Amino acid sequence: GAGIVISIYANTEFLGHATIGDDGFWSFTPEQPLEVNQEYIFQTLVQDPGSDALLISLPYKVYTIETNGDVPATISLDSIVDNIRGFYGYTGALPDDGRGLTNDAHPDLSGKANAGARVNVYDNGTLIGSTTVGADGSWKFTPATALKDGTHVLVATVVTAIGESSPTAGFTITVDTVNSQPILDTVQDNVGTVQTLVSNGGLTDDSRPVLTGHAEAGSRVDIHVFGPNGKALYYQSVTAGNDGSWTYQPKAFTTHGNYSFGITGIDQAGNAWRTYGDKFTVKYVGSNQDDTSVPDAATGLVLHDDVGSIKTDIQNKGITDDSKPTLSGHADAGDIVLVYDNNKVIGSATVASNGNWSFTPATALNDGSHSFTTVVKNVDNGHTSAASAAIGFTVDTVITAPVITGVWDNVGTKTGNVANGGVTDDILPKISGTAEAGSMVTITLTGPAGQRYTYDAVQADQNGNWHYYVVGELGWTAGNSRAFTFTATAADVAGNVSHSSEKYVINYVDSNQDDTSVPDAATGLVLHDDVGSIKTDIQNKGITDDSKPALSGHADAGDIV
């Protein structure tokens, strides 16, 4: 209300008092002028008439400047500076030529304006940031966010009490931070009877073929030349035209062999492309006469098994447990030998300078029949030889365990097959079983005391059946019954060795008298009720509440009832 005293503060410092008039209004003028180009936050403090509480107003912010807005503000954008050296080593102020090429995505902008003023910077009409003019009237601004590759028109304005000034004249720059890969497109042979474009890896008798390609317009293209031994010889540079095309002719080749070209480049902004990528190779030959010869078929073919217990050369129609056998032979040096399996190419080998070559399949061959043949290719003209004679063979990498199917007793009154776990009085029984046809089966006997005996191997017939007559009597432990265990393993012609068969056990008895007696019927049968209040023997045709009555009687000891 009227008459209340108000305390006025600026930036928390006390400035003075003011008293509220009868109309409810008050005013205050600081005794000391406010400093120019400073921010002031005004607040008032008053005591609540009805209590001891102090009431604080909301803050009111002002910014002081030299002019009152009637004097027009001035601003200039004088310079944009590139701070990234780049491959060419260029830094410094960019030319205001309508292009201003730079590889700096954060260039420094600078100019002049009224001291303490705020400067806004625009890129293609969009505000990208602000800065404050220093006491000396200069300002500087660096974009916080990288400018994208492309054209940018940059202007600056100064903020006054009445708004923004007119923008400076646009300063155009072109940001370029990436160089595209320079490409070698063609190699032209201009010498000899065959003058044509040379393919990558192709032949030329032109010691100075013409290279053409494309790159970023105006960029420097570096051509790196490598000699027959793969060693770098030199590099030279050309400049791509406005359309990006470039042409180059190397120094004359001095020796025959392969020459390769690797291409790198640097664009006008200083961005470098430093990796060759795939080199372009040509083979320099002395004569301009094309090689029209047809190579001879490979000779001296040898297919070798290098796996398992049997390591040897594989003959035609042979069997092997090596799923990656090595094929080798002879052909003209430098030619390529294509290897076929069942008429399909499975790989190739390059013939060494001594005429030798070898090939091992990268992928294992499937079990089954295979037929290797070869065709020799002349690398100079692409002509191929006739196919070599085939080497047929079978890959067999698996063998199943043999099975002992029976033991034959041929002694005493009871003869015939002895079941697994059965009894025999034959000291020389016959062992029979099955295995892979043609494989060699080895029988092992384990005696009652754990002693092991390995017999000579027998061969399974074409149907896979085999038989073996035990050599040496089983009766060395004569007396009480003894258990003998037979097992068998098999090895096929490919060299595969099987796991052991299941055990087959027979029990040898010393006596050759088989028990042929017939037992008497059981006697003294008694059926007994052991449940409920009445527990007694159950008579024939009787009644019981025992659902599990016990039956007992008499018979010969050891027999089964």
Characterization of this structure:
With 561 residues, this protein is an all-beta fold. The protein has 6 domains: 5-63; 75-175, Immunoglobulin-like (Sandwich), CATH 2.60.40.10; 183-284, Sandwich (Immunoglobulin-like); 299-395, Sandwich (Immunoglobulin-like); 403-508, Immunoglobulins (Immunoglobulin-like, Sandwich), CATH 2.60.40; 520-561, no CATH class. Helix content is 0%, strand content 43%. The strands form 10 sheets. Strands 8, 10, 11, 13, 14 and 15 form a 6-stranded mixed beta sheet that branches. Strands 17, 19, 20, 22, 23 and 24 form a 6-stranded mixed beta sheet that branches. The chain starts with a strand and ends in a 7-residue tail after the last strand.
Which secondary-structure class do the elements indicate?
A: mainly beta
Supply the CATH architecture of the largest domain: Sandwich
C-alpha Rg (nearest Å): 53 Å
Described by the principal axes of the CA atoms, the overall outline is flat
Please count the beta strands (DSSP E, at least 2 residues each).
Answer: 44
Roughly how many Å apart are the termini?
125 Å
CATH class of the largest domain: Mainly Beta
Number of distinct helices: 0
> Ranges with pLDDT <50 over ≥5 residues?
none
Number of domains: 6
CATH superfamily of the largest domain: Immunoglobulins
**Average pLDDT across residues?**
89
- Strand proportion: 35-45%
